[in-house]
């Protein structure tokens, strides 16, 4: 088929992105390379006990009961609902100390559905500038006003000042009286920097500036599910804020090792989402194997079997950060060439900041370590980095091997600049 004018237009756009070094490509992970890239922080998808429990659950439901099928057969509002799905929602809500929950096929669909339909015309969404792309897409579909605040800054002339400003001006009276709703969107752990939201301060600030109770905090717990809080319940539970957060989005494609997501909220909000969240209404429901994988990993967490994995994970985090800090002390690279955050990480995500992210990533990949360069526009200009993700399945030897590779690259890069 000869190229059309549209093909030529699209090809030109792709060529422009290629010339800027920003062209995205699909790759297939090497079976022999050591994973320091995926979000499977607890390595549950390859854990023998989890896999065995999953197969057992599948077998027990599918073989003796011919009424159970692999596929769901439609949206949950038509033929795709099941007692298993509703029981799973109650189990997850109970585990996280929430009133109710609604399953979505992915975290992206949960965020787009939630933010698109809940805020009404005249409401305001105040969001951390580093909030996930799915929240941005949901906000664009919303009828509410959108205002960003500087990442994780609460009282330093940002969120606090922003909420104060909303109580003044044309809409100030409606905000102060509680007639206008203010939604505050943050993440538990931010996927590129690996830092946690100062959630207690955020809750205190919102309650102080919006005393009528019209401030509704929504926390995306995608990267904090499974690794923070008692038995991996997340940041909200770790801080005991269950009753002060309006909604939480927990996703299962990271530490949980499967796929899908749930919005935890009130029963009223759940019913509202069933009626108005288009990403829930107009999509085929999750298949039984997907639901079974979610139940399997939640059973694993609730039993306490993941606790040693979480402990090991944080031991590796401290060890790697210490090794990288020693590398910087020994070789004193410029901050533009190589730096890390000086504080011990709050999560398994360790960004290695460098203006030569592609070079460092390729150097590590050539030595058998899977890491990825993250460059603008995924991160702000001037904040390119190699994103390292640690896993409970990594060994101390693997961590030390990656750190040696990073140090070797730093030494060569420093010498080349002399």
From TrEMBL:
Indicate whether Transferase appears among the record's keywords: yes
- InterPro entries for this protein: Aminotrans_II_pyridoxalP_BS, Aminotransferase_I/II_large, AON_synthase_class-II, PyrdxlP-dep_Trfase, PyrdxlP-dep_Trfase_major, PyrdxlP-dep_Trfase_small
One example GO MF annotation: transferase activity
Q: Which cofactor does it need?
A: pyridoxal 5'-phosphate
Its keywords, alphabetically, are: Pyridoxal phosphate, Transferase
What region holds the Aminotransferase class I/classII large domain?
A: 34-406
What GO terms describe the biological role, i.e. biological process, of this protein?
Answer: biotin biosynthetic process
Q: Which Pfam families match?
A: Aminotran_1_2
Per the record, the similarity remark reads: Belongs to the class-II pyridoxal-phosphate-dependent aminotransferase family. BioF subfamily.
The identity of this protein, by name, is Predicted protein
């Amino acid at each position: 088929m000869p190229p059309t004018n549209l093909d030529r237009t699209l090809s030109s756009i792709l060529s422009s992105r290629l010339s800027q070094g920003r062209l995205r490509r699909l790759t297939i992970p090497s079976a022999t390379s050591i994973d320091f890239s995926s979000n499977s922080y607890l390595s549950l998808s390859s854990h023998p006990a989890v896999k065995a429990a999953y197969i057992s659950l599948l077998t027990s439901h599918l073989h003796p009961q011919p009424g159970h099928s692999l596929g769901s057969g439609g949206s949950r509002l038509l033929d795709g609902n099941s007692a298993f799905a509703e029981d799973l929602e109650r189990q997850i809500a109970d585990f996280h100390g929430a009133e109710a929950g609604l399953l979505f096929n992915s975290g992206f669909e949960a965020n787009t559905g939630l933010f698109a339909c809940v805020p009404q015309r005249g409401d305001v969404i105040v969001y951390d500038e580093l909030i996930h792309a799915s929240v941005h897409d949901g906000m664009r579909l919303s009828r509410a006003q959108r205002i960003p605040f500087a990442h994780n800054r609460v009282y330093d002339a940002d969120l606090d000042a922003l909420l104060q400003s909303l109580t003044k001006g044309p809409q100030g009276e409606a905000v102060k009286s509680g007639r206008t709703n203010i939604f505050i969107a943050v993440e538990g752990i931010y996927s590129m920097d690996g830092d946690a939201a100062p959630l207690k301060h955020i809750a205190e600030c919102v309650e102080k500036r919006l005393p009528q109770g019209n401030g509704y905090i929504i926390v995306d717990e995608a990267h904090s599910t499974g690794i923070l809080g008692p038995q991996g319940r997340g940041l909200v539970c770790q801080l005991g804020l269950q009753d002060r957060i309006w909604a939480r989005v927990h996703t299962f494609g990271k530490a949980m090792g499967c796929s899908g997501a749930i919005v935890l909220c009130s029963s009223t909000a759940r019913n509202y989402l069933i009626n108005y969240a288009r990403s829930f209404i107009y999509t085929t429901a999750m298949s039984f194997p997907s639901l079974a994988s979610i139940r399997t990993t939640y059973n694993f967490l609730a039993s306490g079997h993941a606790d040693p994995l979480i402990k090991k994970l944080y031991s590796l985090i401290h060890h790697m950060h210490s090794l990288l800090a020693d590398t910087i002390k020994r070789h004193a690279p410029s901050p533009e060439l190589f730096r890390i955050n000086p504080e011990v990480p709050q999560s398994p995500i360790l960004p290695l900041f460098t203006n030569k992210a592609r070079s460092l990533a390729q150097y590590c990949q050539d030595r058998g370590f899977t890491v990825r360069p993250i460059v603008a526009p995924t991160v702000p200009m001037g904040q390119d980095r190699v994103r390292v993700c640690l896993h409970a399945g990594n060994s101390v030897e693997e961590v030390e091997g990656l750190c040696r590779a990073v140090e070797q690259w730093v030494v060569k890069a420093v010498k080349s600049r002399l």
